[in-house]
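Same chain as my last thread, 114 residues:
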Amino acid sequence: MKTICVDSWAMNASFANKIKNKEFILLQSVMNFATIIIVIVALQFFRKSQREMNVLCDEENITAGDFSAVVKFIPNCHKDVDYHELIKSAFDSEKHHLSEVSLCFDLTEYQNAK
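reply #2:
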């Protein structure tokens, strides 16, 4: 049986062809280590650029959700209370400006009663 090996750079650079020469084994190990370090550093720069791009896109895409707050479990024992004014007076201050109050009611209790 005749074995045919094509002479190529991959075959010449393979670890099996360097098994008899210790210097080439050490050189290949050092080059493998250097390649791993270079890939790690390159991925860190890539991640940094992705984070910067994420911040830039987030700053350009401003939505209402960036400035919204959800207040839950407001007591509803008083029927004559103006909830708009109550919430506005509780959260409006010099540090935070409250421009609008939107009330949403939880109707799951009434839906489950059917």
